[in-house]
Amino acid sequence: xxxxxHLRLRQPPALRVSLDDIVPETGADATEVARRPLWLGREAVxxxxxxxxxxxxxxxxATPELVIEGDCRRxxxxxxxxxxGTLRVEGNAGDYLGAEMLAGEIIVGGNAGDLAACxxxxxxxxxxxxxxxxxxxxxxxxxxxxxxxTLVVRGNVGARxxxxxxxxxxxxxxxxxxxxxxxxxxxxxxxxxxxxxxCGYGMRRGTLVFAGPAPETPPTFVETRHDxxxxxxxxxxxLAYHGGPFAALPARTPxxxxxxxxxxxxxxxxxxxxx
Amino acid sequence: MxxxxxTTRMQRNGIDIDDTFAEAFPMKxxxxxxxxxxxxxxxxxxxxxxxxxxxxxxxxxxxAIERPLSPDETPDGRPGVAVLLxxxxxxxxxxxxxxxxxxxxxxxxxxxxxxxxxxxxxxALAKNLRFFGDGWQISKMIxxxxxxxxxxxxxxxxxxxxxxxxxxxxGGNLLILARDTEAALAAAEAGVAxxxxxxxxxMPFPGGVVRSGSKVGSKYASLSASTxxxxxxxxTPLARKTELDPGVNCVMEIVIDGLTEADVSAAMxxxxxxxxxxxxEAGVSRLSAGNYGGKLGPFHFHLRxxxxxxxxx
Lengths: 275, 313
Prior knowledge:
Protein name (chain A): Formylmethanofuran dehydrogenase subunit C
CATH topology of the largest domain in chain B: Alpha-Beta Plaits
Oligomer: heterodimer
GO molecular function (chain A): formylmethanofuran dehydrogenase activity; transition metal ion binding
Organism (chain A): Thauera propionica
Number of helices of chain A: 3
Number of strands of chain A: 17
Order of helices and strands of chain A: EEHEEHEEEEEEEEEEEHEE
Radius of gyration of chain A: 20 Å
Largest sheet of chain A: 13 strands, mixed
Helix content of chain B: 10-25%
Largest sheet of chain B: 16 strands, mixed
Low-confidence stretches of chain B: 1-6
Number of domains of chain B: 2
Shape of chain B: elongated
Largest interface: A-B, 20 and 21 residues
InterPro entries (chain A): Formylmethanofuran_DH_suC, Glu_synth_asu_C_sf
CATH class of the largest domain in chain B: Alpha Beta
Number of domains of chain A: 2
GO biological process, one term (chain A): methanogenesis
């Protein structure tokens, strides 16, 4: 039988705290979970000192759930390496949210910090607010960024989003900071708002869809004018599923630029709103 | 009197239904969805891809158009065609799919190709055809499915990476015994038209009809199959054994391959109903089926059971 584990942050901690061992599959024993050690600086404290912990059984074969409540801006590694179940954060989250996640779903009502969804491999993450820098990129020392799954951001994202991204789908309803999808290896990024400077810098492959205003075309990107009706139909249908500004992308074939020519030129920008 | 007819006679609308069965075999099958800029080009590709695919005896596979697809039934929202391909092994089917899609769909203007089944053993669809792109091909994962985009002179060819193979049934059949060519052809055409409305089946012979029904073996050692002399009107007075009554001067056969036993049975039922509805006045005197005594194929389609009449078990 599955359980719903509920953690309510009593008050924001003075130092950053990593929660990387606590995932939806953690278990039902609230007492045991409350005794788990967390590092608060150099001091080990019990999880129960920071959070009120409760658990309840779920009916049937429902997937396990973890609900984290409170202003968790200093709680890092939420859902890191998660491999199933549902995790809901009712408030803000710290850094490394959903990093290296394999499967399952994370839903955050507020904002999340830096390095969210880094090296994401599978599953789905939805952020009600915005993200800090380096989202969907590589972890420090890593070679590739996000490599699977879906990341939906309802707000804005910071700089270096999708740096070295290799696979998966990223949808940004708001604006993006500088160097969006720089050094991108493959995958799909769709942006509804404005992009910062150096968008697609050094991208090797992959697709960038600009559902909103088109960015300035860099000199290392050139236009192709061939018929991509089929691919656009497949992609447009997939994007529309996520709603918002992506629900009504025009059916006519978008303008297409390829680049970065300095990195092979097999990446593409699709500009559906432009005549 | 026919050797397959028993003392109990079953008639429908004046047409005798033989107390016999069609014997069918296990095969491997896949469904492909071919789309194009319009119906015409989708049909061109589908017809070419399913050409020379009447019998596994010498074609490598049996294939035909299952049905046309409207834009709202296809992955890319364009007009399309569903085709079914059957072969005796998954390995041979994989070879046939690659050759036929590579030479007949990839080459056809504006086409794209997708898997028409979502479960089964995966085999390559565009997986190897991508190399035609000479390094310019692009892989794209959309909602868990990998597609290949290969640059071509009209734009780009899009193909799903894999398709799926399932166990299927091949060799369901119906023999139409008629007074002359005109009557046999008209009945066969009506039967095929009714069968084409059944999902999951194809009639792989030209127009869905075969006039050269075969038996297993031959007097010539190098041949594995030869003319079904028991159903040849030319041999009625000559052959050691005949299945034909006086007055039967033309026999046509409809061969049916289906994704499931139920699909083949439903198609045979639809075909028989259509022929029976035309009545004996239209020139058909009997409906029969081809079998090998039940020793070769595990699927037996008893005509009377399918029609649900007397003698049905």
